[in-house]
Fold these 2 entries.
Entry 1:
Amino acid sequence: MLQRRNRRKMAATAVAAALALTAAACGGDDSSGEDGGAVTIWMSLDQSVVDGIQKQMDIAAEEAGIEVNIERVDGIDKLIKTKIQAGDVPDIALLPQPGVVASVVELGAAFPLDDVLDTGALESSMVAGALDAGMVDDQLYGLLTSMNVKSLIFYPKKAFEEAGYPQPESLDELTELAEQIKSDGGTPWCLTMESGDATGWVATDWMEDLVMRYGGVDAYNDWVSHDLPFTDPVVKEAAAYFEGVALTEDNVLGGQQAITATPFTEAAKPMFDEGKPGCWLLKQGSFFVGPDFLPEDVFANLDEELGVMGFPPAEAGGENPVLGGGDLAVLMSDSEDAKTAMNLLATADIGKDAAPVSSFISPFKDFDASLYPSETTRTIANVAYDSTAFLFDGSDSMPAEVGAGSFWKEMTAWLNGDTDIDTALQNIDDSWPAS
Amino acid sequence: MLEKTLTAFITVLAGVSAALALYWVLNKISELLPEKYEERLKPWFYILPAYLAIAIFVIYPAVQTFIYSFKTKVGFPAESWTGFDNYTTLLASDAFRQTLLNTFLWILFVPAAVVILGLLVALLADRLPTKGENAVKTLIFMPMAISMVGAATVWGLVYDYRPPGRPQVGLLNGIVAAFGGDPIAWLQQNAFHFNSFLLMVMLLWMNVGFAMVLLSAAVKGVPSETLEAARIDGADERQVYVRVVLPQIKGTIVTVFITVLIGVMKVFDIVFVMTNGNFNTNIIGNEFYLQFFNNNNQGAAAAIAVMLMLAVIPIMIYQVRNFRAEEAAR
C-alpha cells in the first residue's frame, strides 16, 4: 500500500511538472508593438546611455513631428530572434554584432538602409569602415550607433614619461620598445587571459589585431569568413609576432605559466606598483577603463595615471585598421516614422547627453570631443577616428564552434605550452564546420 | 510578481487536481470491470501513469538521442543522416581520446578513494565519544551541502595563481610563498594529468561526507554480538574489521561505490567552472556540454550521450541485481 501511494505521488508530480511546462510556454508577454504610432527602439546598452540617447531623441523627434520610445532590454542578441519568431518586434533594434544583424536579415525581419539614409554623407562623417560593418550581401542593414575600441595599449603614464619611452609607430618599434624596457630591467608586457569558461578571448583579440595589420582589411574579412584558412601565411605571420610578444623569455610578467593562469581582470594592476611598474604595456579594449580593472586611486586620477595609445600599424604611416565593437541599429519596420527615427539616430548629436556620463563613444568623427568625460576617453575615440578602417571583432562573426570554441581553446593550449602554433592553427582550421 | 505567484499556485492546484481526477477515473474504469478482473487489473491502472511519465521523460528522450547521434545539423534545415560519422570523428580526434582517458582516470580514482576515505572516517569516528563523533561527522558532511559551483569558487581560491612577486591570493600558493618558493599555476600543470587529480580532490571533498554517513550507519548496524564473538575467539582489532565488519557492510559499500561511480561519469560542473576542459582536463560531461551548447553540434553531443549511456547500463544492471540479491537475503 505504501508503495502504491508513493507511485501516485510520483505521477502527480509528473503531471504537475508537465502542466507547469505548458503554462510557462504559453505565458509570453505581449507588451510593445503597435502603440499609437510611436516608434519603438530596443537596445541593451547601459541605462545611462539609454537615458542620454532618449533625451536627445526627444528633442529631435519633436522637431520631426514623431514620437520615439527607447526601451532597454536584456540580451537583445538572443531576444531578438525569439521575438521575430513571435512576430513581436520593435521598429528599430540596436544589435551588438554584425553576425546578429546578418541572422536578422536572413530571417527577413530587416529593411535595407541604402535608400533611407544619406550613405554618401555618412561615409565621410563616420569612422572609416563603419558602414561596411553593417553590410549584409552588399546592402546596408546596420548603422553603427555606439562603439568601443579594442586596438589599444595602456601604460603607466607617469613612469612611462619619466623613463622617456617613445610611442611606437609600427609593430617593429613596439618590439624595440619592449626590448628597451627589458634592457632597463623592467618587464614589458602585462598579458593575462584566464576568463573562466571563456578563457582564450584575450588571445583571439591579439590575433585579430595582428591579422588585420599584416593582411589588411580584405584578408581580415576573408579570414573571418574562412575564405582564407587559419593555416595561411598571413595568419602564421600574425601568430609569429604574438609568439614573440608572449613567449619570449622575460617578456611577460610571471612568464609563460602566468599568461593562462592569471585572471584577465588582474592585468592592469601591476602597472601601478609602488616604485617601479611590475609590467609596462597592456593591450586591452576600451572597457578596461573601469573601476573593476584599475586600482582605485588610478581610476580616480585617470588622466594623470593611465596612458593609452593605439596599437601601432604594421608599417609606420601605413594602413591603420582598428579592432572594435559596437551596436548596429537595424530597421525592422518600413513605416515613414521609423525611417525618420533612423535618420535621427544617424547624427553625431544623438550621443551628446550620453557621452559625458558613460563610456559611450560616438562613431561620428565630427562628434564634439570635449563632451567625453576624460582625456583617456578622448584619446580612445581619436584612435578610432584616425584609423583607416574600423573592423568588428572577427571571432564573434565566426561560427560558435570556432569563434567561441576551438579558437579560444587552441590559443590557450598553445600559450600554455601544450601544443605548437602550427598544430594549433591546423586544429582550428579543421574545426571549421563544413557547410 | 503577484501574477507569477498566482500562476504558480494555479498550476500546482491544477496539476494536483488533474492527477486526482485521473486516478479517480482510472479507479472508476477498473470498477466497471467484472470483479475478477478488477482486482487483477487495478494495480496496473495505478502504475500506468508513472510508467507513462517515465516513457515520456526518460525513454522517449533516450531514443531520440540515439537517433540524433546518427544525424548531423540537428534542428537546422540541413539536418541529414551521417551514419556513424559522429562516432568515428569523435573517436578519431586526439582531443576526444584525451577526454576519454581523463574520464577513465576519474572513474578509476574517485569512487575508490571516496569509499576508502568514507570508510576510514566512519570507522575512526565510531570510536570517538558521541560529541566528538558528531562534530567530526558534521564537519566532513558539510561540503555535501554546498553546490558544485560554490565548491568551485572555494577551490578556485585554493588553487589561485598570481605571478611571482604579486600578493598570492590562493591558499596553496600562499603556503608555497611563505616557504620562499615560486608560485605554481596548479591547474595548468598537466604532466601525468596532475591537474585532473587536483580537480578530483574537489569531488572527493564533496562526496566523502555522503559515503561516511551511509557507511557509518552500516557500521553501527553490525550486531555487536558478532564483534564480541570474534574478540572472544582471539581476533585482534584489524581482524575484527576486515573479517567481521567489512563482510557485513559489503552491500552498503557496493551501493556507495556505484552511486559515486555513476555520479563521476556524469560529472560536469567542476571541470566546466574550473578549467572548461582547458589544459588537458576535459572530461566527457564537459565535452557533451561544449558540443551541444557551444558548438551547436547536437549530433556529436548525442553520440557522446549514447556512449555514456552504453557505459552506464552494465553498472546499472549490476547494481539492480546486487540490490535484488540483498532484498532476497533479507
Entry 2:
Amino acid sequence: MQTFDLEAQGLRQLNATLHAQADDTNQTAWEVVNPRGSHAIAVGLDAPIEVNVKGSTGYYCGGMNKQATINVHGSVGPGVAENMMSGMVVIEGDASQYAGATGHGGTLVIKGNASSRCGISMKGIDIIVHGNIGHMSAFMAQSGNLVVCGDAGEALGDSLYEAKLFVRGSVKSLGADCIEKEMRPEHTEILRDLLERGGCDAKPEEFKRYGSARQLYNFNIDNAY
Amino acid sequence: MKDDNSHGAPRTVPIQSATFTNPINAEIRRAAATGIYDIRGGGAKRKLPHFDDLLFLGASISRYPLEGYREKCETSVTLGTRFASKPIKLDIPVTIAGMSFGALSGPAKEALGRGATLAGTSTTTGDGGMTEEERGHSNKLVYQYLPSRYGMNPDDLRRCDAIEVVVGQGAKPGGGGMLLGQKISDRVAEMRNLPKGIDQRSACRHPDWTGPDDLEIKILELREITGWEKPIYIKVGGARPYFDTTLAVKAGADVVVLDGMQGGTAATQDVFIENVGQPILACIREAVRALEDMGMHREVQLIVSGGIRTGADVAKCMAMGADAVAIGTAALIALGDNDPKWEAEYNALGTTAGAYDDWHEGQDPAGITTQNPELMARFDPIEGGRRLNNYLKVMTLEAQTIARACGKNHLHNLEPEDLCALTLEAAAMAKIPLAGTDWYPGKPGTSY
C-alpha cells in the first residue's frame, strides 16, 4: 500500500504519480490522506490500480477514469466520475450534482444520496445509488443504467434517449418524453446484476423501469406538400 | 398609362411593402405549410457593419513603409503561453475553426487537416469527437470540449495539441445545436453513443459546471488530466465580449476565442442566426479592452472569427488587437462548397450556388457537408487540402502586403492607428476614427 499525503505533497504530484502507473505496475494499492475537499483528485487515471481516498473531496473526483477502482471514504462534490470510461468509483457518503455526468462506461456506486442531475447525458455508464437522487437526473441520458434504491426528484429522465432507469421508491415527476415501461425478464436480469455489483440490499422486483417514449427523436413536421 | 386611367380616374400603382417583403411573405407561407421554423447552416446573412467598413491608412511621412516583397514581415504566433507547458507555435495567424465530423464528412475533415498542416497552422475538431483522418493529417489539432461531450474521451484529450472549451458560438450564443437524423450514419451514431437516424441534440450548456467559478475548476481538472501541457482555449459567442473575456481569463484560459454572429454553424434556427449576437466588428475592441484592463493583452491570446474572408480582414483583426483569426465558412468555400460547377444540382435542391445553406440535410452536391457515400466520393481530400493551403497562403500574403505598407515587420505590430472607418456605425463599433476625422462616437472626452 502506497500512502500519499495530499496536503503535504500537492494535487499535481498526486495525479502525476498515479498517471505514471503502467498497466503492469506493482504499486496497485494507493491511499490518499488529507484530501480536505480538494478538486480533481485522481482524475484521468488509466491503470488497473485501486485508490482509497480517506475523506471527502471537491469537484470531479475520479473524472474520466479508465480501469482504476477509486473508493472515497467520505462524500464528494459535483461531477464525481464525470465522463468515466471504465473501472469503478465507489462513494461511501453522498454525492453532489452531476454525479457520473456523460460517463461512457464503468460503474459508479453512491452509498448515500446523489443531488440533482445525477447521470446527466450519461453515455453507457452504470450508476447505482443506494439513497435518493435529486431533480433533473438522467437528463438527456443516452445509454447505460441508472439504479435508484430510494426516491427520485422532479423531471426524471427529461429528454431521455436510450438509458434505462430503475427506481425503487417514488418519482416526484417524469421529465418530457420519459415514461414508465414494462419490466421484462431481461430487465430484471440486468437489474439483478447491477444491484449485486452495487452491494445493494434490494430485490429487482421492488423496482419500476423508466425509459424514453421516443416521441422527441425526430422533429414532428406537418409538411403536407 | 392605361392602368392608371382605366375607369377614367388615375389609380395608385401597386406598392410592395418594405416590411412584408416577398422573402418575408414566402417565409410566412413556408411556416404555415410546415409548422416548423427554418433550420439552416452558415452564419448571419443580413448586411452588417463589417471589416469592409474599415480602411488602412498606409504609410506617409509619419509612417515609413517596408518594401512590399523583399523586407521581412513575420506572421508567426504562439498560442497558450500563460499556463501550458507546450504552447502551440503556428507559422500563420489564420487557424481553422471547429467543425464537427457528422456535419462534415470524414474526407472533408481530412482535407482541413491536410490544408492546415501544409500552411503551418492548426485545425479544430467539433461536436462528435476526433476522427483518425483528422488527427492523422493535422500537425496541430485543437480538441473541442463541448456541452454534448459526444465522443469525448481522455485518450483524445491526451493526444490533442490544445483543448477548446466551447461555451458559445457566434451563430447562436446561448443556443445548442441539432444534427438531423438523415446525417446520422452508423459511424456518426457510434461515435455519439446514439441510435442511427434520430435527431441529435447538442446541449446549450455544459452538463457539469455552471458559471465562471465552476469553469475554473473544470479547467483545473482538464489540466490535471493532461499534465498541464495543453493550451486551454475558451470559445465564446459575440454576446458580451468585455465580460465574457474577463470571466474566461479569470477562469484560467490561455486563449480566448471570440466568434461574431457571422460565424457559421452546421444547423440552427434561421431566426436565431439572424437575431442573436453581435457582429464581430463590435466585439474585438471590447475583448481587447478587457484583456488590457487585466494586464493580459498578449499574455492571454485572442483569436477572433466570424466572417473573415481575406488577408485584409485578417490584417484588420490584428490591427484591432487580435493575435490570430479562425475561419470556417471561408475554408469550406475554399474546399469547394457552394461552387457554381454544381449549379444544376443546387437548382434541383431549390437553391443556387452561393446561397446553399441546408448543410444539415446531408445532400450537399459538393460532397463536403454530407455523410452520403456517393456524394462524399465527389470530394478529393488531397485536392481539397491543396486548395485550402493555397487559400491560406494568399490570405497571409495579402495581410503581409498591407502590414508592410503600414511599416510593420510583424502582423502583430499592426495597430488601431493604422485604420479609419467609412461609416459612423463601424467607427462606433470598432472604436476607430471616422475617415477624415479624429473622432468616433463614444470616444472618451467627447460629448457624443
